[in-house]
Design brief:
Layout lengths: L3 E4 L3 H12 L4 E5 L22 E4 L6 H11 L3 H8 L1 E2 L4 E4 L1 H13 L4 E5 L13 E3 L7 H11 L4 E7 L2 E3 L9 E2 L11 E6 L1 H13 L7 H5 L9 H6 L4 H4 L18 E7 L6 E4 L8 H8 L10 E3 L2 E8 L1 H4 L5 E2 L2 E6 L9 H20 L11 H10 L38 H23 L1
Parallel strand pairs: 1-2, 1-7, 2-6, 7-17
Antiparallel strand pairs: 3-5, 4-5, 8-15, 9-13, 9-14, 10-11, 11-12, 12-13, 16-17
Helix pairs in contact: 1-12, 2-12, 2-14, 3-4
This protein binds flavin-adenine dinucleotide.
The site of flavin-adenine dinucleotide (FAD) has 33 residues, from helix 1, strand 2 and helix 12.
Length: 452
Protein backbone atom coordinates (compact mmCIF):
# COMPACT_ATOMS: atom_id res chain seq x y z
CA UNK A 1 0.00 0.00 0.00
CA UNK A 2 1.01 3.63 -0.45
CA UNK A 3 2.29 5.35 2.69
CA UNK A 4 0.28 7.44 5.15
CA UNK A 5 1.91 10.57 6.59
CA UNK A 6 1.63 11.22 10.31
CA UNK A 7 2.63 14.68 11.54
CA UNK A 8 3.73 14.78 15.19
CA UNK A 9 5.37 11.97 17.14
CA UNK A 10 3.62 12.48 20.49
CA UNK A 11 0.99 10.36 22.22
CA UNK A 12 -1.47 10.36 19.34
CA UNK A 13 0.94 10.29 16.40
CA UNK A 14 2.92 7.28 17.64
CA UNK A 15 -0.22 5.28 18.42
CA UNK A 16 -1.73 6.15 15.02
CA UNK A 17 1.50 5.10 13.31
CA UNK A 18 1.50 1.75 15.13
CA UNK A 19 -2.08 0.94 14.13
CA UNK A 20 -1.24 1.66 10.49
CA UNK A 21 1.93 -0.44 10.59
CA UNK A 22 0.09 -3.34 12.20
CA UNK A 23 -2.47 -3.16 9.40
CA UNK A 24 0.37 -3.41 6.86
CA UNK A 25 0.35 0.24 5.77
CA UNK A 26 3.72 2.06 5.49
CA UNK A 27 4.07 5.19 7.61
CA UNK A 28 6.20 8.31 7.34
CA UNK A 29 6.22 10.04 10.73
CA UNK A 30 7.33 13.68 10.81
CA UNK A 31 8.53 14.98 14.19
CA UNK A 32 9.98 18.48 14.49
CA UNK A 33 11.98 17.93 17.67
CA UNK A 34 14.89 18.44 18.25
CA UNK A 35 15.22 20.96 15.36
CA UNK A 36 12.18 22.92 16.54
CA UNK A 37 11.39 22.78 20.25
CA UNK A 38 8.17 23.28 22.24
CA UNK A 39 7.77 25.09 25.56
CA UNK A 40 7.08 21.84 27.43
CA UNK A 41 9.02 18.97 25.82
CA UNK A 42 12.58 18.54 27.09
CA UNK A 43 13.87 15.52 25.12
CA UNK A 44 13.87 14.57 21.45
CA UNK A 45 12.18 11.22 22.21
CA UNK A 46 8.92 10.16 20.62
CA UNK A 47 5.88 9.94 22.97
CA UNK A 48 7.42 12.20 25.58
CA UNK A 49 5.20 12.76 28.63
CA UNK A 50 5.51 16.49 29.23
CA UNK A 51 4.32 16.65 32.82
CA UNK A 52 2.96 13.93 35.11
CA UNK A 53 4.10 10.32 34.53
CA UNK A 54 0.61 8.96 35.23
CA UNK A 55 -2.06 7.58 32.92
CA UNK A 56 -4.49 7.94 35.87
CA UNK A 57 -6.70 5.18 37.23
CA UNK A 58 -6.35 1.69 35.80
CA UNK A 59 -9.60 0.50 37.41
CA UNK A 60 -11.65 -0.35 34.34
CA UNK A 61 -14.83 -1.14 36.22
CA UNK A 62 -15.21 2.05 38.22
CA UNK A 63 -13.23 4.65 36.34
CA UNK A 64 -13.81 5.78 32.78
CA UNK A 65 -10.13 6.35 32.01
CA UNK A 66 -9.40 2.83 33.29
CA UNK A 67 -12.08 1.59 30.91
CA UNK A 68 -10.41 3.48 28.06
CA UNK A 69 -7.09 1.75 28.95
CA UNK A 70 -8.80 -1.61 28.70
CA UNK A 71 -10.48 -0.77 25.38
CA UNK A 72 -7.12 0.38 24.00
CA UNK A 73 -5.45 -2.86 25.11
CA UNK A 74 -8.11 -4.82 23.29
CA UNK A 75 -7.32 -2.84 20.14
CA UNK A 76 -3.61 -3.64 20.30
CA UNK A 77 -2.44 -0.26 21.63
CA UNK A 78 1.30 0.41 21.55
CA UNK A 79 0.95 3.04 24.28
CA UNK A 80 -0.69 0.52 26.62
CA UNK A 81 1.91 -2.13 25.75
CA UNK A 82 4.72 0.32 26.51
CA UNK A 83 3.02 1.38 29.75
CA UNK A 84 2.77 -2.24 30.90
CA UNK A 85 6.45 -2.78 30.11
CA UNK A 86 7.70 0.35 31.90
CA UNK A 87 5.25 0.67 34.76
CA UNK A 88 6.21 1.93 38.22
CA UNK A 89 4.28 1.30 41.48
CA UNK A 90 1.39 3.77 41.80
CA UNK A 91 -1.45 2.04 43.66
CA UNK A 92 -4.52 1.69 41.47
CA UNK A 93 -3.13 4.23 38.97
CA UNK A 94 -1.05 3.33 35.92
CA UNK A 95 2.21 5.27 36.02
CA UNK A 96 5.39 4.77 34.02
CA UNK A 97 9.08 5.55 33.94
CA UNK A 98 8.86 8.34 31.37
CA UNK A 99 12.27 7.77 29.77
CA UNK A 100 11.84 4.03 29.43
CA UNK A 101 8.31 4.58 28.15
CA UNK A 102 9.41 6.97 25.43
CA UNK A 103 12.33 4.72 24.42
CA UNK A 104 10.07 1.64 24.27
CA UNK A 105 7.65 3.38 21.90
CA UNK A 106 10.45 4.76 19.74
CA UNK A 107 12.27 1.40 19.51
CA UNK A 108 9.10 -0.46 18.55
CA UNK A 109 8.35 1.98 15.76
CA UNK A 110 11.86 2.43 14.39
CA UNK A 111 12.46 -1.32 14.23
CA UNK A 112 9.31 -1.87 12.14
CA UNK A 113 10.22 -2.43 8.47
CA UNK A 114 7.36 -0.26 7.15
CA UNK A 115 8.29 2.75 9.29
CA UNK A 116 10.20 5.91 8.33
CA UNK A 117 10.98 8.71 10.79
CA UNK A 118 11.70 12.20 9.47
CA UNK A 119 12.97 14.76 11.94
CA UNK A 120 11.43 17.88 10.42
CA UNK A 121 8.78 20.48 11.06
CA UNK A 122 5.82 20.47 8.70
CA UNK A 123 5.17 24.22 8.53
CA UNK A 124 2.20 24.29 6.14
CA UNK A 125 -0.80 22.30 4.96
CA UNK A 126 0.84 19.30 3.23
CA UNK A 127 0.85 19.05 -0.58
CA UNK A 128 -1.96 17.28 -2.46
CA UNK A 129 0.28 14.25 -3.21
CA UNK A 130 -0.05 13.37 0.46
CA UNK A 131 -3.49 11.89 0.02
CA UNK A 132 -3.87 10.38 3.50
CA UNK A 133 -2.49 12.47 6.36
CA UNK A 134 -2.94 12.45 10.13
CA UNK A 135 -2.19 15.73 11.92
CA UNK A 136 -1.34 15.01 15.56
CA UNK A 137 0.77 18.01 16.52
CA UNK A 138 -0.77 18.44 19.97
CA UNK A 139 -1.42 21.30 22.37
CA UNK A 140 1.88 22.97 21.43
CA UNK A 141 1.56 22.72 17.65
CA UNK A 142 4.29 24.78 15.99
CA UNK A 143 3.31 28.38 15.30
CA UNK A 144 3.64 28.04 11.51
CA UNK A 145 1.41 24.98 11.24
CA UNK A 146 -1.12 26.55 13.65
CA UNK A 147 -1.22 29.64 11.41
CA UNK A 148 -1.71 27.51 8.30
CA UNK A 149 -4.48 25.51 9.97
CA UNK A 150 -6.18 28.69 11.10
CA UNK A 151 -6.14 29.95 7.53
CA UNK A 152 -7.68 26.72 6.27
CA UNK A 153 -10.37 26.34 8.94
CA UNK A 154 -11.35 29.98 9.51
CA UNK A 155 -10.66 32.28 12.39
CA UNK A 156 -13.16 31.04 14.97
CA UNK A 157 -12.26 27.42 14.43
CA UNK A 158 -8.94 27.15 16.20
CA UNK A 159 -8.29 28.04 19.83
CA UNK A 160 -4.95 28.72 21.52
CA UNK A 161 -6.23 28.36 25.09
CA UNK A 162 -8.63 26.07 26.78
CA UNK A 163 -10.78 27.72 29.40
CA UNK A 164 -12.57 25.02 31.24
CA UNK A 165 -15.37 25.66 33.68
CA UNK A 166 -16.00 22.87 36.19
CA UNK A 167 -18.45 20.24 35.00
CA UNK A 168 -20.93 18.72 37.45
CA UNK A 169 -22.96 15.51 37.29
CA UNK A 170 -26.61 16.62 37.25
CA UNK A 171 -27.64 13.78 39.54
CA UNK A 172 -25.44 15.25 42.29
CA UNK A 173 -27.24 18.64 42.28
CA UNK A 174 -29.75 19.36 45.06
CA UNK A 175 -32.98 20.53 43.40
CA UNK A 176 -34.59 21.44 46.71
CA UNK A 177 -32.35 24.53 46.41
CA UNK A 178 -31.53 24.79 42.69
CA UNK A 179 -34.09 25.21 39.89
CA UNK A 180 -34.40 25.08 36.12
CA UNK A 181 -35.08 28.37 34.31
CA UNK A 182 -33.74 30.44 31.41
CA UNK A 183 -33.14 34.12 32.07
CA UNK A 184 -36.38 35.99 31.25
CA UNK A 185 -37.71 32.54 30.28
CA UNK A 186 -36.15 33.01 26.85
CA UNK A 187 -35.56 30.15 24.43
CA UNK A 188 -37.37 26.87 24.02
CA UNK A 189 -37.41 25.71 27.60
CA UNK A 190 -35.82 26.03 31.00
CA UNK A 191 -32.28 25.47 29.83
CA UNK A 192 -30.23 26.51 32.84
CA UNK A 193 -29.88 25.20 36.35
CA UNK A 194 -29.80 28.11 38.80
CA UNK A 195 -28.28 28.28 42.28
CA UNK A 196 -29.19 31.29 44.47
CA UNK A 197 -26.62 33.28 46.46
CA UNK A 198 -27.43 35.59 49.37
CA UNK A 199 -25.35 38.77 49.73
CA UNK A 200 -23.35 37.08 52.48
CA UNK A 201 -22.59 33.98 50.38
CA UNK A 202 -21.73 36.13 47.37
CA UNK A 203 -19.14 38.04 49.39
CA UNK A 204 -17.73 34.84 50.78
CA UNK A 205 -17.38 33.50 47.23
CA UNK A 206 -15.52 36.64 46.12
CA UNK A 207 -13.14 36.33 49.10
CA UNK A 208 -12.57 32.66 48.34
CA UNK A 209 -11.82 33.43 44.68
CA UNK A 210 -9.38 36.20 45.58
CA UNK A 211 -7.62 34.33 48.40
CA UNK A 212 -7.82 30.72 47.15
CA UNK A 213 -4.77 28.69 46.19
CA UNK A 214 -4.07 29.09 42.44
CA UNK A 215 -2.00 26.99 40.10
CA UNK A 216 1.12 28.74 38.86
CA UNK A 217 1.18 30.40 35.49
CA UNK A 218 3.84 29.13 33.14
CA UNK A 219 6.08 31.83 31.67
CA UNK A 220 4.53 31.62 28.22
CA UNK A 221 0.99 31.63 29.60
CA UNK A 222 1.56 35.04 31.15
CA UNK A 223 2.33 36.50 27.73
CA UNK A 224 -0.67 35.09 25.88
CA UNK A 225 -3.62 37.46 26.17
CA UNK A 226 -7.02 36.13 27.26
CA UNK A 227 -10.02 36.26 25.02
CA UNK A 228 -12.67 38.22 26.98
CA UNK A 229 -14.92 35.18 26.88
CA UNK A 230 -12.52 32.90 28.68
CA UNK A 231 -11.04 35.04 31.41
CA UNK A 232 -10.53 33.19 34.69
CA UNK A 233 -13.26 33.99 37.19
CA UNK A 234 -10.76 35.14 39.82
CA UNK A 235 -9.26 37.65 37.35
CA UNK A 236 -12.76 39.01 36.78
CA UNK A 237 -13.29 39.21 40.56
CA UNK A 238 -10.05 41.18 40.88
CA UNK A 239 -11.51 43.88 38.65
CA UNK A 240 -14.00 44.76 41.38
CA UNK A 241 -16.18 43.03 43.96
CA UNK A 242 -19.35 43.66 41.94
CA UNK A 243 -17.99 42.68 38.51
CA UNK A 244 -19.44 39.18 38.79
CA UNK A 245 -22.81 40.27 40.17
CA UNK A 246 -23.21 42.44 37.06
CA UNK A 247 -21.63 39.76 34.84
CA UNK A 248 -22.15 35.99 34.76
CA UNK A 249 -23.74 35.95 38.24
CA UNK A 250 -26.36 38.64 37.65
CA UNK A 251 -29.70 37.72 39.24
CA UNK A 252 -31.99 39.54 36.78
CA UNK A 253 -34.72 37.69 34.92
CA UNK A 254 -34.70 34.77 37.34
CA UNK A 255 -37.10 33.84 40.16
CA UNK A 256 -36.30 31.33 42.88
CA UNK A 257 -39.36 29.03 43.22
CA UNK A 258 -38.14 27.80 46.60
CA UNK A 259 -38.19 31.21 48.29
CA UNK A 260 -39.90 34.60 48.11
CA UNK A 261 -36.61 36.37 48.61
CA UNK A 262 -34.92 37.70 45.47
CA UNK A 263 -31.40 36.21 45.31
CA UNK A 264 -28.49 38.67 45.45
CA UNK A 265 -26.67 36.74 42.74
CA UNK A 266 -27.28 33.53 40.80
CA UNK A 267 -24.80 30.89 39.69
CA UNK A 268 -25.96 29.27 36.46
CA UNK A 269 -25.13 25.85 35.04
CA UNK A 270 -25.51 25.04 31.37
CA UNK A 271 -26.07 21.63 29.81
CA UNK A 272 -22.77 20.21 28.61
CA UNK A 273 -23.59 16.98 26.78
CA UNK A 274 -26.36 15.70 24.57
CA UNK A 275 -27.61 13.30 27.23
CA UNK A 276 -28.16 16.07 29.76
CA UNK A 277 -26.19 14.25 32.46
CA UNK A 278 -23.46 16.92 32.72
CA UNK A 279 -23.69 20.65 33.44
CA UNK A 280 -20.90 23.26 33.43
CA UNK A 281 -20.83 26.20 35.83
CA UNK A 282 -21.11 29.19 33.52
CA UNK A 283 -18.15 31.60 33.70
CA UNK A 284 -16.24 29.59 36.30
CA UNK A 285 -13.10 28.82 34.26
CA UNK A 286 -10.37 29.12 36.87
CA UNK A 287 -6.76 28.60 37.89
CA UNK A 288 -7.83 27.69 41.46
CA UNK A 289 -6.20 24.44 42.56
CA UNK A 290 -8.41 21.37 42.39
CA UNK A 291 -8.76 20.99 46.18
CA UNK A 292 -9.74 24.65 46.55
CA UNK A 293 -12.28 24.38 43.72
CA UNK A 294 -14.16 21.54 45.38
CA UNK A 295 -14.20 23.34 48.71
CA UNK A 296 -15.29 26.71 47.34
CA UNK A 297 -17.87 25.51 44.79
CA UNK A 298 -19.55 23.15 47.27
CA UNK A 299 -20.47 26.22 49.34
CA UNK A 300 -22.90 27.23 46.56
CA UNK A 301 -26.48 26.32 47.55
CA UNK A 302 -27.51 23.24 45.57
CA UNK A 303 -23.92 22.16 44.93
CA UNK A 304 -23.10 21.02 48.48
CA UNK A 305 -22.81 17.42 47.29
CA UNK A 306 -21.68 18.18 43.74
CA UNK A 307 -19.63 15.50 42.02
CA UNK A 308 -17.34 16.88 39.34
CA UNK A 309 -16.85 15.18 35.98
CA UNK A 310 -13.93 17.57 35.62
CA UNK A 311 -12.62 20.58 37.46
CA UNK A 312 -11.89 23.96 35.93
CA UNK A 313 -8.64 24.93 34.29
CA UNK A 314 -6.92 27.23 31.87
CA UNK A 315 -3.99 26.17 29.72
CA UNK A 316 -2.10 26.96 26.58
CA UNK A 317 -3.67 24.54 24.13
CA UNK A 318 -4.21 24.31 20.41
CA UNK A 319 -7.43 22.64 19.35
CA UNK A 320 -9.89 22.89 16.53
CA UNK A 321 -13.64 23.25 16.66
CA UNK A 322 -14.17 19.56 15.94
CA UNK A 323 -18.00 19.50 16.16
CA UNK A 324 -18.06 21.87 13.21
CA UNK A 325 -15.00 20.76 11.26
CA UNK A 326 -14.65 16.97 11.51
CA UNK A 327 -16.73 14.01 10.36
CA UNK A 328 -17.07 10.97 12.61
CA UNK A 329 -13.90 9.43 11.16
CA UNK A 330 -11.94 12.49 12.30
CA UNK A 331 -11.56 13.79 8.70
CA UNK A 332 -11.63 17.47 7.96
CA UNK A 333 -14.92 17.82 6.06
CA UNK A 334 -13.43 20.58 3.94
CA UNK A 335 -10.35 18.55 2.98
CA UNK A 336 -10.96 14.87 3.78
CA UNK A 337 -7.41 13.78 2.97
CA UNK A 338 -6.50 15.42 6.30
CA UNK A 339 -7.42 13.67 9.49
CA UNK A 340 -6.85 15.09 12.98
CA UNK A 341 -5.88 13.14 16.09
CA UNK A 342 -4.88 13.72 19.68
CA UNK A 343 -5.36 16.80 21.74
CA UNK A 344 -5.93 18.97 18.64
CA UNK A 345 -9.34 17.30 18.24
CA UNK A 346 -10.52 18.63 21.60
CA UNK A 347 -9.85 15.70 23.89
CA UNK A 348 -7.65 16.27 26.91
CA UNK A 349 -4.91 14.13 28.45
CA UNK A 350 -2.30 11.57 27.47
CA UNK A 351 -4.71 8.63 27.37
CA UNK A 352 -7.52 10.35 25.52
CA UNK A 353 -5.04 11.76 22.98
CA UNK A 354 -3.47 8.35 22.39
CA UNK A 355 -6.97 6.86 22.08
CA UNK A 356 -7.90 9.34 19.34
CA UNK A 357 -4.58 8.52 17.66
CA UNK A 358 -5.48 4.84 17.77
CA UNK A 359 -8.83 5.49 16.12
CA UNK A 360 -7.38 7.87 13.51
CA UNK A 361 -4.77 5.21 12.66
CA UNK A 362 -7.41 2.54 12.23
CA UNK A 363 -9.66 4.80 10.13
CA UNK A 364 -6.74 5.86 7.91
CA UNK A 365 -5.62 2.24 7.46
CA UNK A 366 -9.13 1.10 6.50
CA UNK A 367 -9.36 3.92 3.98
CA UNK A 368 -5.98 3.05 2.48
CA UNK A 369 -6.87 -0.65 2.24
CA UNK A 370 -10.35 0.01 0.82
CA UNK A 371 -12.12 -1.52 3.83
CA UNK A 372 -15.34 -0.30 5.42
CA UNK A 373 -15.16 0.97 8.97
CA UNK A 374 -17.48 2.87 11.32
CA UNK A 375 -16.60 4.36 14.70
CA UNK A 376 -17.16 2.08 17.71
CA UNK A 377 -20.63 2.41 19.28
CA UNK A 378 -21.27 5.38 21.57
CA UNK A 379 -21.69 2.97 24.51
CA UNK A 380 -17.91 2.41 24.43
CA UNK A 381 -15.38 4.89 25.84
CA UNK A 382 -13.87 5.25 22.34
CA UNK A 383 -17.24 5.86 20.72
CA UNK A 384 -18.38 8.27 23.44
CA UNK A 385 -15.28 10.42 22.96
CA UNK A 386 -15.62 10.49 19.18
CA UNK A 387 -19.29 11.31 19.51
CA UNK A 388 -18.51 14.06 21.99
CA UNK A 389 -15.98 15.80 19.79
CA UNK A 390 -17.69 15.33 16.43
CA UNK A 391 -21.34 15.16 17.51
CA UNK A 392 -22.20 18.81 16.87
CA UNK A 393 -25.30 17.75 14.95
CA UNK A 394 -26.97 16.08 17.93
CA UNK A 395 -29.45 18.35 19.75
CA UNK A 396 -28.03 19.36 23.10
CA UNK A 397 -24.47 18.40 22.17
CA UNK A 398 -21.74 20.90 23.07
CA UNK A 399 -22.45 24.27 21.55
CA UNK A 400 -20.04 24.84 18.69
CA UNK A 401 -19.10 28.31 19.84
CA UNK A 402 -18.21 27.16 23.33
CA UNK A 403 -16.66 23.79 22.50
CA UNK A 404 -14.02 23.04 25.13
CA UNK A 405 -11.72 20.03 25.57
CA UNK A 406 -12.97 17.00 27.46
CA UNK A 407 -11.61 14.08 29.44
CA UNK A 408 -13.30 10.70 29.17
CA UNK A 409 -16.01 10.17 31.81
CA UNK A 410 -19.08 7.98 32.25
CA UNK A 411 -21.35 11.03 31.81
CA UNK A 412 -20.74 11.15 28.04
CA UNK A 413 -21.88 7.54 27.61
CA UNK A 414 -25.63 6.89 27.30
CA UNK A 415 -27.42 5.82 30.51
CA UNK A 416 -28.05 2.12 31.01
CA UNK A 417 -31.16 0.83 29.23
CA UNK A 418 -32.50 -0.22 32.63
CA UNK A 419 -31.53 0.28 36.25
CA UNK A 420 -32.50 -3.30 37.01
CA UNK A 421 -30.56 -6.51 36.67
CA UNK A 422 -31.99 -9.19 34.38
CA UNK A 423 -33.41 -10.94 37.49
CA UNK A 424 -35.42 -7.81 38.32
CA UNK A 425 -33.29 -6.67 41.27
CA UNK A 426 -32.78 -2.91 41.42
CA UNK A 427 -29.21 -1.88 40.63
CA UNK A 428 -27.36 -0.12 43.43
CA UNK A 429 -25.72 3.19 42.52
CA UNK A 430 -22.27 1.66 43.02
CA UNK A 431 -23.15 -1.07 40.52
CA UNK A 432 -23.96 1.29 37.66
CA UNK A 433 -20.42 2.17 36.57
CA UNK A 434 -19.29 -1.48 36.45
CA UNK A 435 -22.46 -2.25 34.48
CA UNK A 436 -21.69 0.54 32.00
CA UNK A 437 -18.11 -0.71 31.73
CA UNK A 438 -19.25 -4.26 31.06
CA UNK A 439 -21.65 -3.01 28.37
CA UNK A 440 -18.81 -1.01 26.79
CA UNK A 441 -16.42 -3.96 26.60
CA UNK A 442 -19.10 -6.25 25.19
CA UNK A 443 -20.05 -3.69 22.53
CA UNK A 444 -16.39 -3.03 21.68
CA UNK A 445 -15.82 -6.75 21.20
CA UNK A 446 -18.78 -6.95 18.81
CA UNK A 447 -17.37 -3.99 16.87
CA UNK A 448 -13.95 -5.65 16.66
CA UNK A 449 -15.43 -9.01 15.60
CA UNK A 450 -17.41 -7.35 12.82
CA UNK A 451 -14.19 -5.82 11.41
CA UNK A 452 -12.43 -9.14 10.84
P1 LIG B 1 1.93 15.72 21.95
O1 LIG B 1 2.10 14.54 22.82
O2 LIG B 1 2.28 17.05 22.45
O3 LIG B 1 2.64 15.43 20.57
C1 LIG B 1 2.68 16.38 19.52
C2 LIG B 1 4.00 16.24 18.81
O4 LIG B 1 3.96 16.98 17.60
C3 LIG B 1 5.17 16.77 19.62
O5 LIG B 1 6.16 15.78 19.68
C4 LIG B 1 5.63 18.02 18.83
O6 LIG B 1 7.01 18.20 18.93
C5 LIG B 1 5.20 17.67 17.42
N1 LIG B 1 4.93 18.81 16.53
C6 LIG B 1 4.25 19.95 16.80
N2 LIG B 1 4.14 20.72 15.68
C7 LIG B 1 4.77 20.04 14.68
C8 LIG B 1 4.99 20.31 13.28
N3 LIG B 1 4.51 21.41 12.71
N4 LIG B 1 5.68 19.40 12.54
C9 LIG B 1 6.17 18.24 13.12
N5 LIG B 1 5.99 17.96 14.43
C10 LIG B 1 5.28 18.84 15.21
N6 LIG B 1 -1.85 15.40 30.02
C11 LIG B 1 -1.94 14.47 31.00
O7 LIG B 1 -2.62 13.45 30.83
N7 LIG B 1 -1.30 14.64 32.18
C12 LIG B 1 -0.54 15.73 32.43
O8 LIG B 1 0.04 15.84 33.50
C13 LIG B 1 -0.41 16.73 31.41
N8 LIG B 1 0.33 17.84 31.61
C14 LIG B 1 0.49 18.75 30.61
C15 LIG B 1 1.32 19.87 30.80
C16 LIG B 1 1.51 20.80 29.79
C17 LIG B 1 2.42 21.98 30.03
C18 LIG B 1 0.86 20.62 28.55
C19 LIG B 1 1.06 21.59 27.43
C20 LIG B 1 0.03 19.53 28.36
C21 LIG B 1 -0.17 18.59 29.37
N9 LIG B 1 -1.00 17.48 29.22
C22 LIG B 1 -1.10 16.52 30.20
C23 LIG B 1 -1.71 17.26 28.01
C24 LIG B 1 -0.82 16.35 27.16
O9 LIG B 1 0.29 17.06 26.70
C25 LIG B 1 -1.55 15.87 26.02
O10 LIG B 1 -2.77 15.33 26.40
C26 LIG B 1 -0.86 14.84 25.13
O11 LIG B 1 0.52 14.87 25.17
C27 LIG B 1 -1.35 15.18 23.78
O12 LIG B 1 -0.93 14.24 22.87
P2 LIG B 1 -0.76 14.69 21.38
O13 LIG B 1 -0.19 13.54 20.66
O14 LIG B 1 -1.99 15.30 20.88
O15 LIG B 1 0.35 15.86 21.47
Amino acid sequence: AKEVHVIGGGMAGTEAAWQLLEAGVPVVLHEMRPAVKTDAHVTDGLAELVCSNSFRSDDFENNAVGLLHEEMRRCGSLVMEAAAATKVPAGSALAVDREQFSRYVEDKLTSHPLFTLKREEIPAIPPAEWDNVIIATGPLTSARLAEATLELTGKDSLAFFDAIAPIVYKESIDFSKAWFQSRYDKGEGADYINCPLSEELYNELIDDLLDGDKADYKEWEKDTPYFEGCMPIEVMAERGRQTLSFGPLKPVGLRNPHSDEQPYAVVQLRQDNALGTLYNIVGFQTKLKYGAQKEVFRKIPGLEKAEFARLGGLHRNTFINSPELLDNQLRLKKMPRLRFAGQMTGVEGYVESAAMGLMAGRFAAAERLGRQITPPPVTTAFGALINHITGGHIPGAPEQKTFQPMNINFGIMPPLESNRWPDGRKMKKAERKPAKAARALKDLQEWLDALE
